[in-house]
Amino acid sequence: MWWQKVFPKYGNWGGPGWSGGCYPSSPKETDWSIQPIDAMDLIFRNHDRRYQNAIKRYPEREDLQKEVFKKADEDLIRLLKSLEFDPNLWILKPPKNLWYAKYYRICAIYVFEIRGLLCH
């Protein structure tokens, strides 16, 4: 998809369509054994799992899927905001590129807040 080339990814779980360190062609191909690289990546993995669980639980009910997606997005924003601004203070610190972790967190909050206003 074009948006996968436009939006950056983060760790193994952050970014549109980016799950388990790759772009799986279907949710069934997601490898949940892939570990997050840090606290923010863990938040993204949990968000991905909630999306996938909604798709599995409500395969014929897009309205119910959207309700779960909306709540997952709201929780993602809340959890990202709860992270310290300095990634050195996170319980699971980024292994490298602290500046990128700071930047990505701010951008992800912004994108999901805008998405919430436009899509939900």
Q: How many domains make up the 3D coordinates?
A: 1
Question: Span between N and C termini?
Answer: 22 Å
**How does the overall form come out from the CA principal axes?**
globular
What is the percentage of strand-forming residues?
A: under 5%
Overall average residue pLDDT: 92
| Total beta-strand segments | 0
DSSP helix fraction: 55-70%
Structural summary, described in words:
- The chain is built from 4 helices and no strands.
- The longest helix is centred in the last third of the chain and has 22 residues, at 98-119.
- The chain has helices spanning 2-6, 39-57, 62-82, 98-119.
- The chain has one domain.
- It is mostly helical and 120 residues long.
- Helix 2 runs antiparallel to helix 3 (62-82) and helix 3 (62-82) packs antiparallel against helix 4.
